[in-house]
Design brief:
The protein is about 65% helix and about 0% strand. By secondary structure, it is mainly α. Helix 7 packs across helix 9 and helix 8 packs across helix 9. It is globular, with a radius of gyration of 20 Å.
Length: about 260
């Protein structure tokens, strides 16, 4: 039964990954997400149902549009597969039985989808939008209070640290080091993680960013003056801290003791 359950979750993740790809593209092009069926981004051919099956259509079409024969980006199957795996891992983390949909599991599926949107949009376009950050943070804050996910003190400290560190960098650099989107994302991270897990996410983000930037510089894919989509590191670090933040903190304190 558990294998069947995880298979269902995996295919649901593929479907949401396909929706995520479409949402990112339509948001950039200012097209309503409910406005018609999916189109080829090159020739605007309306896709048939069999051209729009996550991953499988990419394989069936050999990575090319059936009409104009232009290459389809590998982004599409990779995002679909990545979100499917993340959905399965999240379900495994919250396992209480097959097809048991807890409020916490639903919350974390929504959050990882939201973080994936921020990650992909910042990676593609170097921008963090207001929609996935501020409204999500407000809703999560007020849902957390009655459901006991975080105390208001924990979330407010998390907000002060998460948004505050980026606001400080923004002010002293006059916006040259960091953008307003990072401040908003820091606020969302503070609500998601609370105190002290926000510290884990910030530390991991700078470690991830530094390590990957060194690899890119070494491979001559970028240079030290290039702008970095830091939101990608922040969202990845937030995902890790959501599930392993307390474990990392206990491990670190154990080393000190």
């Amino acid at each position: 039964m558990s294998i069947f359950y995880y298979t269902v979750v995996f295919f649901a993740g593929l479907a949401f990954g396909s929706f995520l790809n479409a949402w990112v593209f339509r948001k950039r092009e200012n097209i309503r997400i409910v406005s018609g069926r999916s189109l080829c981004i090159f020739c605007h051919h309306q896709l048939a149902w069999y051209e729009n099956i996550p991953v499988f259509s990419f394989i069936f079409l050999k990575g090319k549009c059936r009409t104009c024969r232009k290459q389809i980006s590998w982004q599409y199957p990779l995002v679909e597969l990545a979100l499917a795996v993340v959905f399965v891992l999240t379900a495994w983390w919250h396992w209480t039985g097959p097809f048991v949909l807890t409020v916490e599991l639903l919350r974390d599926w929504i959050l990882v989808f939201n973080l994936a949107f921020i990650f992909l949009y910042d990676l593609r376009y170097g921008e963090i939008l207001d929609g996935p950050t501020i409204p999500t943070a407000i809703l999560l804050f007020f849902f957390s209070l009655p459901l006991g996910w975080h105390t208001w003190q924990s979330m407010l400290i998390g907000i002060a640290v998460g948004a505050g560190i980026f606001l400080f960098q923004y002010l002293i650099s006059s916006g040259k080091w960091i953008g307003g989107g990072d401040i908003r994302l820091g606020l969302l991270m503070g609500v998601i993680l609370g105190w002290p897990n926000i510290l884990v996410a910030l530390l991991l983000a700078y470690v991830f960013g530094g390590f990957i930037s060194m690899i890119l510089v070494w491979g001559k894919k970028t240079n030290l003056q290039s702008e970095t989509p830091f939101g990608t590191y922040l969202t990845a670090a937030t995902f890790v801290a959501m599930f392993f933040g307390e474990t990392i903190i206990n491990w670190y304190l154990g080393m000190l003791g």
